[in-house]
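Quick note —
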Amino acid sequence: MNFDQFNAYRDQALLLHASQEGPQQIGLDAIFTAVVAHAASARGKHQRAPVEREPAPQWFLDALERLKGQRVTVSSFLLLSGLAPVTEADRRNVGRWLREAGIEPRKVGGEQLFQL
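Predicted structure written out below.
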């Protein structure tokens, strides 16, 4: 935020603070914080970073064919496919690839089970 933006947000917060009526008033610092947060969200600063969409690799397709008919979680799918070490990105990708393959999970005991 540059100096001119800061001054504009400060002036807007002062105007809003002065326009309050009644015995209970919101503090100037809270109003200033809300004005800055609102301006940042209007600019789209708090959007999720774009996810790199990579196609399903061959090891995934081979493991999907080999495990046909079983009920597995994403972690057990990775374990049975022989991929090691596993990262959080691998778990997210496998879940996405299974959904893209048309396999919808069922939540059982807090875990998502995929019927392959």
